[in-house]
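thread: overnight batch results

M.L. [08:02]
morning all. the overnight job finished for the chain we discussed friday. pasting input first so we're all looking at the same thing
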Amino acid sequence: QVQLVESGGGLVQAGGSLRLSCAASGGISWINVMGWYRQAPGKQRELVAGITSGGSTNYADSVKGRFTISKDNAKNTVYLQMNSLKPEDTAVYYCNVNGQKTVFTNFDSWGQGTQVTVSS
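M.L. [08:03]
and the structure it wrote out:
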């Protein structure tokens, strides 16, 4: 079973920065896409940013220019650098990773979630 361990959430004032990390482990042979999602109270979970195996990235319009997604292939870890945080960025942030364990076994795993709270 592929496990994801997230870290880096917390409380920050508007305009501040946080860096989230998500480390994947558990017999992974190939990672296809790593991404960050978030869910605010009363809202649906939404994609924040994603990065492919080749390094291509995509971002939600609301975070473009403020957030940066990156990865360390050797560590199977994905990061989300969040700058110029706004109160509307407050949410639980979830890491998602999909790929292969073997030629015949795919996986799509979620992290436990980490709370990000931005005060005004």
